[in-house]
């Protein structure tokens, strides 16, 4: 049996302000820093340690992982960052307040944008300041990989190659793995690991800063999963 720890970053400043965030690189809120520390304390109390960490290229996840590893006195372990673990790119919704967006477009459409795996939120253009092609950290991405908007199914399409190429091989070497990422990149991973239907995944909401433990068998199939509280 092998344990895999999935962790959504602590509350961000825009979670707090209820704004669509996506690839916007906002920091943790004060509460988010506390949640990250608490996650580290919980993992420490329950005897967890890790051989490798994986995270996105967004500071709310990077900092959460760093704080957890600091609590565990594990800052020395390798940490691999990838844009593939980023939050779903929320297109032209990025920066907008979620309640104001509901008031403007109606709850049904906004809920579809947020949770329907195949519904695309409105796109940005390449002239938009939010276009990732203007951000140095994405300079090695091909034009096809640079999103203008993204649905959950496309998020899954870019998360899974990373899972298969890096996370699975680490677990096959019996390394203890922590993945610190985002609501929707983790939702995509969970849909894959748990074989959830599109219908089931729409109901899945991950709390910020609470470690989710997966117990996996030799074939990396799920035995059970639970939150650490
Ligand atoms: O990017 C965001 O706004 C959040 O992290 C996830 O938002 P959602 O719950 O609206 O998908």
UniProtKB/TrEMBL annotation:
Query: Which CDD domains does this chain map to?
Result: HP_PGM_like (cd07067)
Q: Which Pfam families match?
A: His_Phos_1 (PF00300)
Per the UniProt record, the source organism is Mucilaginibacter xinganensis
PANTHER family per UniProt: PHOSPHOGLYCERATE MUTASE (PTHR11931)
Which family, according to UniProt? Belongs to the phosphoglycerate mutase family. BPG-dependent PGAM subfamily.
Q: What SMART domains does this protein's entry cite?
A: PGAM
Q: GO terms for molecular function, please?
A: phosphoglycerate mutase activity
Which reactions appear under catalytic activity for this entry?
Answer: (2R)-2-phosphoglycerate = (2R)-3-phosphoglycerate
List the SUPFAM superfamilies hit by this protein, alphabetically.
Phosphoglycerate mutase-like (SSF53254)
Instruction: Check the record and name the InterPro entries matching this protein.
Output: His_Pase_superF_clade-1, His_PPase_superfam, PG/BPGM_mutase_AS, Phosphogly_mut1
Its annotated pathway reads:
Carbohydrate degradation; glycolysis; pyruvate from D-glyceraldehyde 3-phosphate: step 3/5
GO annotation, biological process: gluconeogenesis; glycolytic process
What is the recorded name of this protein? 2,3-bisphosphoglycerate-dependent phosphoglycerate mutase
Keyword list, A-Z: Gluconeogenesis, Glycolysis, Isomerase
Write the Enzyme Commission number(s) for this entry.
5.4.2.11
